[in-house]
Design goal:
Length: 75
Amino acid sequence: MDRLARAGQALPAGLRLLIVEGYRPPALQRQYFDDYLGSLRAANPVADEQWLRMAASRYVSPPELAPHSAGPRWI
């Protein structure tokens, strides 16, 4: 956090940092996706699973396709 604060202070006048997302553990990404998928399922009870997953993927990346949400994997 200190480095972000210093970086923000080093910006020219009138500019600032905006952090939209940060580290997201894979379990949290899974929860976000599953929760949204569940709400779509409840709102569309006759929809097939393929359509539901595609619709959910438009707003929340499935964890198996979004490894970037967990940050880089350092070796």
